[in-house]
Each structure stands twice: as C-alpha cells, then as structure tokens.
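DM from R.C. (forwarded with permission)

"hey, sorry to bug you on a friday — could you get me a structure for this? deadline for the figure draft is monday and I only need the backbone to look sensible"
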Amino acid sequence: MSLPRVFVARLNGMSVFDPLGDEVGRVRDVLVTLSGRVGGQGPRVIGLIVEVPGRRRVFVPITRVTAIDAGQVITTGLVNMRRFQQRPGETLVVGELFDRQVTLVDDGQRVPVVVEDIAMDRQRGGDWRLSKIFVRKGAPQRAVRGLRLGRRRGETLLVDPDQVEGLQDAGPAQAATALLEAYEDLKPQDLAEAIHGLSPKRRAEVADALDDETLADVLEELPDDDRLEILTHLVAERAADVLEVMQPDDATDLLADLPAATQEELLQLMEPDEAADLRRLLTYDENTAGGLMTTEPVVLGPDASIAEALALVRREELHPAIASLVYVTRPPHETPTGRLLGSVHIQRLLREAPHQPVGSVLDDLDPVTPQASLGEVTRALATYNLVALPVVDAEGRLVGSVTVDDVLDHILPDDWREERGEENGLTEVADV
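My reply, with the result:
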C-alpha cells in the first residue's frame, strides 16, 4: 500500500477537525526543519500552522495529525491555543520557501529555478518528510502591485530535495506571488496577523508585492513596531503614497513615531491637501480628541436628501464607525467645515423618507473640542451610546470625528494586537 503524499499548496486552507468532527480551524502553513535530513530522507515536517477563531495562529504538532484526506485534516489529542511563535531553525513552507530562487543540480548542470510547491510524504514510522519539490526554470516572476498575474511561463519539474541547493539560504530578494495567492481570501486583519509571523526580510518582500490600498489596510492592523519597520523599508515616494491611503489618524500615529526630518520629507511628497490634514493632526496631543480624530467624516449640507446621505454611508471603503454618523454643516463641507449644525445617525436615516432633507432630522448631540481628554471622549461616547463623536473648534466648525475603535486603541495595552485571542494557553481539542 502506498503511503500518502500531500502537496502543501493544496493543504493550505484545508479545514482542520477534531475527532468529534468539530472544526478547529484552517491550515495556513507547514512548519519544517531544513536541517532534519536523516539517511537520505528529506527535511522533517514539524507541524501545521492553523488559523483558529479569533484570528490567531496556533501550532499543531504533526504527531497530532491522524489523517489528511478528502480535503480535510483530522487531529487528535490536545492543541495548545497559544499564539504561534517561530523558533530559530524552523522554516515556514508557504511563507518562506514558496517563490524562493534556488539551484537545481542535474547531471552536473546547475540551473536556476523557483520553488512553486513542495510535497510531503508520510513515512512508515509515522513521520512526515518533504519528499518532492515542484520547481519552475527561470527567474522568479515578480508581481505587479494591484494586478493579478497570468499564467506563469517556464518548464516545470518535480525533483528530489537532494537535487536542490539554496533552500536554507535567505538569498536575494524573494517574490511573494505564491504567498499572496495562498492568502487571497484573507481580510486585512487576517493578512496582518500572517505577515506579523514572518521574518523582517519576508515582511518587507510581502509589503513590496502588495498594492498601496491593501498595504495601507494591513499597516492599520499591525503592531507599531511592525508597521514602522515596513514603512521605513519602503522608498520615500511609495511610503508617502501609502500614508495618503491610510486613515488620517492612523497615518498620523505612524508619522509621529518617525524623526522630524523623515516626517517632513514624507509630508513634502504627499498631495498638499492630504499633507495639510496630517500636519494639523500632528499638532495635537495623542491622548486628546484632536490626536484621536479622523479628518474625513461624512459631511453634508442641510439641504441634502436622506437618499444622498444613505448613498454616501453605503460606500464600501468607509469604516463602519465613520459611516454610523452623518454630520451636517454650513459650507464648506471639507474639514475644517463651516459651523456644525448637528448630526444624524444611520438608524434615523433608515427610518425617514428618502426625499426629506437631512437638516430636518438632526439629532441633538454635544460635540467635544480638540483639547478634550481621552477620558472626556470616552465618557461622551458611553453617555450617548455612540461609536463616533463630532469634534469642533472654538468657532463651532467641524474639524473631525472620534470613533470608538481609536479610543480602544489608546485604552488597550500597547501590545494588544500581538496578544489578541490568547487565553493563557487554553486547550480545546481533547482525546476521545
């Protein structure tokens, strides 16, 4: 009877089930040790990286895997639910080996090839080993940001690991095409979690392959150290483009961590209107309403119809908290606006006739000033059961909006993104 062979590209994304048939999560990578060759056998598989509810990635030892068949993985025993942390000597197949340029040694010839997939076989003793490497001749195909690649070109071969040199070497800059294809179903928050688990070099390579909008979304979800590392890796022109796409409050927080000379260089490269918003936000203390607010709320004049307001808040790119309130002001309607007349919650808009002007259904809501403390803002949001709050200057002009997610960012510990979902090593999958 032949022993099972599984290609990692097909394994990625498979559902993982416990012995009772309950889904534990989905496979997101395979962890191997490249130095683990014994008696001519390929590198040893250590385990699977599984994404479980709560967006955290945990390690499942390969010894806990009882079957990989029919598009599913069956596990047994106890699974440690602590967040996965990669150790020295360990390598992620999808995250670090796919798209790596290596050398194929064949009949005395040395041919440059690119790793596109890797097969793992179960041995008679129960171990899993990397058994075959699917490679494509030629240089790696570079992704063009924002464009999906077509069919790849070049002769493909299925070779033994012993025929390949360079798997253990980080080498030159590596493409991220296969990695992003494996993660294409992920939301920005999940992609940020995956990128956080990579090495600094690999994070930079993935950032280079992402389009500006996706990278901006990912940076907003990463811990401060990671996003600062990625931003400083980018060339100044692209860093400025990404900052323009980010939410103004998130972009300001990132700029605030840079030296003054770097801040000014990036602001000079940005569009004047975008740079002006960020310069204004940088003047406020980070623990005040001015330091927390976004300068891009939804603003309309009093004569605009409810139908028009609903069309604006329906835009996909709007954060849900920002879309929850429509602010009604005198002209101009770009911050800093004319005098704030009031605001309308989206629920109120849904209850009124579409042809009515928004000025006729204003809610009585007290705004805060840019100097209001974090405590004042938090109490105001709690008092009125809101997820957003208007911020006005001394003349009553709307200058921005504070959303509850930005308040939580400042209330939670600095490393909350790294610790989210951890519950003291909770074990959830039991033997039967």
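R.C.: lifesaver. The two ends are 27 Å apart (CA to CA).
me: no worries. The first strand starts at residue 5 and ends at 7.
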